Amino acid sequence: MRALTHPVRLRLLQALVLEGPLTATQAAEIIGETATTCSFHFRQLRKYGFVEDDGEPGRRERPWRLARMNNRIPGWTGDLDVDLAATASLKMLLEHYIDEIRSWWQQIPSYPPEWRNATGLTDMLMFVTPDELTELRAELDPVLYRYMERLEDPSRRPPGARPVRTLILAYSVDSAVPVPQTAP
Question: Mind listing the pLDDT tens digit for each residue in 17-71?
C-alpha cells in the first residue's frame, strides 16, 4: 500500500487503466514526467505486484501492464503498520480524487451538453446502521462492476464512451455535526 502513496505512481496506474500497456517513454508523454522517472516508478510498482513487464524477452523496449484491475485497501485491521499504510494510501487517493474533481469542474463548460447533463454530484444524508450501510454498499458494487470488463477490453467500449470515475464515499458526519441520539 505504501507503493500507492506517490502521486506519480497513481498517475502511472491511471494511465495504464486508460491506455493499456505503455512503455516508460509513452507513459512520460501522457503524465508529463520524464521517461527515467516513469521507469523508476514502474519498477517500484512491479516490486509490489501492481504492474508486470509486458515486453518480449530480449527486447529493449519494455511495455508495462497492470497486474490486476482491482486493488482493495483494507479497512482497520488492528495491525499498526498495515493501518498506517492504508491511511497514507487513502489520504493520497482522496487528494488525487479531489484534484480530478477540481479539474473536471473547471472543464465542464467545454463538455458537450449530453456530458454536462450526465455528470454531476449526488449528495444524500441517511440515518443507517452499520449493517444497513454494508448491505447498501453490497447492492451498489455489482451495478458498477457490470462496466468493469470495458477497462480490461477496450473493444467492449461503445462509441462515445469516456472514462468516468464514480466515487461512492460513505462516512459518518457525526464528528463534524452533532447527531441527535434517539432513546432506545
Answer: 888 899 999 999 999 999 999 999 999 999 988 899 887 776 777 899 988 766 5
DSSP symbols for 82-106: HHHHHHHHHHHHHHHHHHHHHHHHH
Residue 65's DSSP bridge partners are 52
- DSSP sequence for the chain: -GGGGSHHHHHHHHHHHHH-SB-HHHHHHHHTS-HHHHHHHHHHHHHTTSEEE-SPTT-S---EEES-S--------S-HHHHHHHHHHHHHHHHHHHHHHHHHHHHGGGS-HHHHHH-----------HHHHHHHHHHHHHHHHTTTHHHH-GGGSPTT-------------TTTSPPPPPP-
CB neighbour class for 66 (10 Å; exposed up to 12, middle 13-18, buried from 19) = buried
Confidence (pTM): 0.69
Rg of the chain on CA atoms, in Å: 19
Q: Which residues pair with residue 66 across a beta bridge?
A: 51
Cα–Cα distance between 50 and 68 in angstroms, integer? 7
